[in-house]
Amino acid sequence: MDRNPFSEAEIAGRLVRVRTALAERKLDAAVFASPENVFYLTGLDHWGYFAPHLLIVPLEGKPVLVTRSMEKVTIEKQVTAAEFRGHSDSETAADLAARVLAELSLSGKRIGLEYWTAGLSHGLAVALQTQADARWSDVSGLVDKMRRVKSAEEQALMRQAAQVTDAAAGAAIAAISDGASEQEVAAQCVAAMIRAGGHAPGFGPFIRPAARLGEEHTTWGDGIYRKGEPVFVELSGCISRYHAPLGRLVRIGHISDEDAAMAEVTAKAFNAVVEALRPGARARDVYAAWQAV
User: Fold this and answer.
1) How far is the first Cα of the chain from the last one, in angstroms, to the nearest whole number?
2) In whole angstroms, what is the distance from residue 180 CA to residue 178 CA?
3) Residue of 9, 39, 240, 255 with fewest CB within 10 Å of its CB?
């Protein structure tokens, strides 16, 4: 999380595809607010996305990234494909973005906006649409669809993340034993993740006893693991925001014949899914391959 992970050619190609899609929709520009999509179109990799980032992409000319002024050093270091415009904390990103749209001669034009994203609150969207003279159109999902097919650069990052996943999972499983504390297991897992070159993941690790299995998004506490107890492990290594998730159920001591049979069926079902995953395959057909086992 200290650099832009993409080449300039990679970012340029993405912007060309976005602009082509905007032109097809007869739009003059778009404002993207989803952190995932701002990252995809600029390569900005930092923890500042808790505050709004509005990326203005006109059909022609350099995109403009609007966010807090304090992000100036990071953005000017990492982002070359967009101009940075920072606002003070006495105003909002919408206030400045409205002025930028006018500066770009986009007043009265057809402009797309991502309505469905956690990166754009209702109030911020209303403020932007109130202040900017434009004919607005929803472009939610436009960039998301492009992100479904991973480029060679993205696949390389995901493979690196998978190596981190293996290291972290291996360390967690090795640490789970009778008498081990939940904190110590988590510490071994996270330490292995970092030592393997991993970056801060977007979730987890989730490591908890099976007694708390139903707590979907909670993780370790201050308990002690005991023999015969199942332990749930779900985690993902991360490289530049690309993840490779993995889940395991670890038994301390031994497993029953029933559990062993279940594990064997699971392995067969997993292999069936991998075999069914081919370009052009429908999701329902992949699901059916798993169910058939």
Assistant:
1) 41
2) 6
3) 9
| 154 inside domain | no
In a domain, 47, yes or no: yes
Alpha-carbon span 71 to 32, nearest angstrom: 18
190: nearest Cα among 165, 215, 209? 165
Tokens of 25: 């929709």
User: Which residue's entry shows tokens 């052009």?
Assistant: 280
20 and 124 together in one domain = yes
Looking at the structure of the chain, the number of domains it has is 3
Indicate left, alpha or beta for 107 from its phi (over 0: left) and psi (-120 to 50: alpha). Answer: beta
Q: Which tens digit of pLDDT belongs to each residue from 125-159?
A: 999 999 999 999 999 999 999 999 999 999 999 99
Kindly calculate the radius of gyration of the chain based on its CA atoms and give it in whole angstroms. 23
pTM strictly above 0.90: yes
Q: Which residues in the chain belong to E strands, given as ranges?
A: 29-32, 54-58, 64-68, 83-87, 109-113, 134-138, 206-209, 230-239, 242-251
* CA-closest candidate to residue 9, choices 152, 187, 208: 152
Can you give the residue range of the structural domain that contains 57?
8-147
Beta bridge partners, 57, equal: 30
Does 254 have pLDDT greater than 90? no
